[in-house]
Automatic annotation (TrEMBL), chains A, B:
All copies of domain PurM-like C-terminal, residue ranges: 174-326
Originating species: Actinomadura syzygii
UniProt xrefs under PANTHER family: CARBAMOYL DEHYDRATASE HYPE, HYDROGENASE ISOENZYMES FORMATION PROTEIN HYPE
InterPro entries noted in UniProt: HypE, PurM-like_C_dom, PurM-like_C_sf, PurM-like_N, PurM-like_N_sf
Domain of life where this protein originates: Bacteria
GO BP terms: protein maturation
CDD domains, alphabetized: HypE
Stated name of the protein: Hydrogenase expression/formation protein HypE
Domain PurM-like N-terminal, first and last residues per copy: 50-161
SUPFAM superfamilies attached to this UniProt entry: PurM C-terminal domain-like, PurM N-terminal domain-like
Classification via Pfam families: AIRS, AIRS_C
Amino acid sequence: MMTDPTALSCPAPAAETERVLLGHGSGGRLMAELLHDVIAAELGADRVTEDAAVVDTGTAEVVTSTDSFVVTPRFFPGGDIGSLAVHGTVNDLAMRGARPVALTLAYIIEEGLPLDELRAVTASAARAAGLVGVPIVTGDTKVVPRGAADGLYVTTAGIGVRRLGAAPSAARGRPGDIVLLSGPIALHGTAILSARESLGFEAEIASDSRPLHALVTAMLDAGGPDVHTLRDPTRGGLASALNELAETSSVGVDIAEDAVPVPRPAAAACELLGLDPLHVANEGCLVAFVAPAAADAVLRAMRARPEGTEARAIGTLTDEHPGRVHMRTLLGGVRVVDMLVGEQLPRIC
Amino acid sequence: MMTDPTALSCPAPAAETERVLLGHGSGGRLMAELLHDVIAAELGADRVTEDAAVVDTGTAEVVTSTDSFVVTPRFFPGGDIGSLAVHGTVNDLAMRGARPVALTLAYIIEEGLPLDELRAVTASAARAAGLVGVPIVTGDTKVVPRGAADGLYVTTAGIGVRRLGAAPSAARGRPGDIVLLSGPIALHGTAILSARESLGFEAEIASDSRPLHALVTAMLDAGGPDVHTLRDPTRGGLASALNELAETSSVGVDIAEDAVPVPRPAAAACELLGLDPLHVANEGCLVAFVAPAAADAVLRAMRARPEGTEARAIGTLTDEHPGRVHMRTLLGGVRVVDMLVGEQLPRIC
C-alpha cells in the first residue's frame, strides 16, 4: 500500500486546520465526537460504545480490550502507572463479563528514564497482574529521543474469556433497571491532581485504582443475565459514563445526588479546584444497570466484597428523557447531568 | 496496592543512575539486555524470546502480540504508521502460526496533531486490516500536551487462532534445518532514513511493509510441522533475528553473503550511511528454519506468492558454534555476524 509521501508527510498547517485538542482526550463530549467523527468513521465502524470487544475465535467467546496510560505523576498515592495499566485493562474486560486470561504490555520510553523507575513500574505491573492471577504474556519496548515523550507511556491489552451466559453490554439497559454504584467516586482524579499540584490532600486522598474482576464475578453469580450493563467510570467520571450508557441503551437515567458517595477530602479538593465530582475520573468503582428483581441480591453480593462494601443503589432507568441523565439535587430540584466537555484533567490515566 | 509516593515519584537522579539509552530501543544487544535484566526480571519471566504468546483459553489456542509504533516520518515511501502498525502485529501473530482474528488500536496523540493526519493514519490502518481480513475491534485514545509526545504514537495488539498442528517457535530450530529468507532485506530502514534525511533515494527505495500471514499459510500448507521457526527480522535486522533464534534454539547458523539479496539502492544507501544491511530493519520479509526434507516444497510455495517471489535458501543450521551466526563472505572468508549493538536508527518503526 503505497502512500504518496509528498501528499501527507508534511501537511502545511493552514490557519483553519482542525487540530487535536487536549480536550479530545478527556473521556467527555469532545472525545466522543473525535471517536465518532474521526476514528470510527475511518475504521468504518458505526459507533464506539464499548471499552472491550467480543471476538469469536470459532470455539470460545474471547473478549479483548486495550488502553494507553500517560498519567503524570507516574507514582501517586494509591498506585502507579504500572498497576493502573493492569487494573484498567482487567476492568475493561470485566465490564464485558470476561475473566482475564492474558495481558500484553507495551512501553514507549523517553531516552534518559532512570532504569530504576522502569524496574519499579514493571514490578508493580507484575505484582498487580499476579494479584489478579493473569499472566503478562508478551510485550514491546520502544525508546524515543529526549523530548519526544514524557518519561514513560504504557499500553496494555488484554484477552478474557466470557463467562457462559453473561452478556453485560452498554446497550442492554432497560427502563426500570436499578442503577448500582460499587463505591465512592472522585478519588482517582483528585489524588492525581493533588499529587501533581501539591494541594495538600496527598495524605488524605488515595486513588481507588484496583481490579474489579472479582466483584463482577460475585455480581454475575448473584444476578446472572439480569446484570444488564457494567461500566467503570474512568475518564470523564460517573457523569460521562452514565450519559454514554443512556445514549447507547436509549434510556433515561435518574439518579439522586444524596445517594452518590463523595469522600469528604475528595469533595473538598473538587471545591477548591472548581470541579464537579461527577466529572472526576475513577479507577476502582463500577456502575451497573440491573433488573429490579435481581438488584437486591446483586447489591448484597457487592457489599460482601471488600471493593464493594460501600455499594448502593443510586437511581433507576426510565423510558422518559432517553439518552439523558437527570439528578435529583440535595435541595429537591432536578438538574441535567451532562458529559464532561473538553479537558478537565489532562494525563489523569 | 499502595505505593509510597515519596519513595518513587521523584527519584533524585544520582550521577551514576542507570538510564534508558536510545540504544535500548534498537532491537539489538542493548535491547536484549534491557528486556532480560529489567523487564523479564521484574515480570518474573525467564526470558523474552518470542514476539507473540500462545494463550490457552481452555477451548482454543489463542496467540496474542503487541507492538508500539513511534516511526518518524509518519508517512514514508511504501507505507505509514497506520498500515505499519497493522502489518507489524499481523506478522507477529503469523510468526507463531496464527491466523489473525482481531486487532486493537491505541493512540497516544500530541495536542495539535492535525485531524487530517489522524484521519489518514486511521484510514490507512483500516485499509491494511481490511486487506488482511482482520477487524479492528476496540481501541483507546489518549491526548498529551504539546511537547509530551512527537505527533502520534500507535500501539496495536492482536489476537490470532493457532492453526491446528502448527507450532513454529524460536526454540524449534534443529541442526540440519535449511534457512529460508522470503525476500530482499534492508528496504524498510533505508526507506525511513532516506525520507527522514532527504538522502535522494526516496524515489528508488520503498519500505517493504506488508502482511505476511498469507505467505505463512502457504508455507504451513506445504511444510506443516516441518516449518520449525518463523521470524520477521524487524528492528535489529536479519543479523539480530538470526542471533536471537540461534541462541533460543541453541544452534549455530551458517549463511552465505551472496545468497542474501540486498537491492542495489538499499545497498548504496547503507554504504553512504555506514550501515550493515544485515542490521537494517525490515517490515515485509521473514526468515524460516525448515527441516531439510520439506525445504524444497516450502520454498516453492513461498515463490508462488507475490510476497515471496524472491524467496531463497540462505544457509543451514549446525550443531557447531551454537548461539552464533557465521557468514561466508563474498571473498570466501567466514565472519561472525553479531547482533546490532546500541541504536542504529531510532524511531524506525
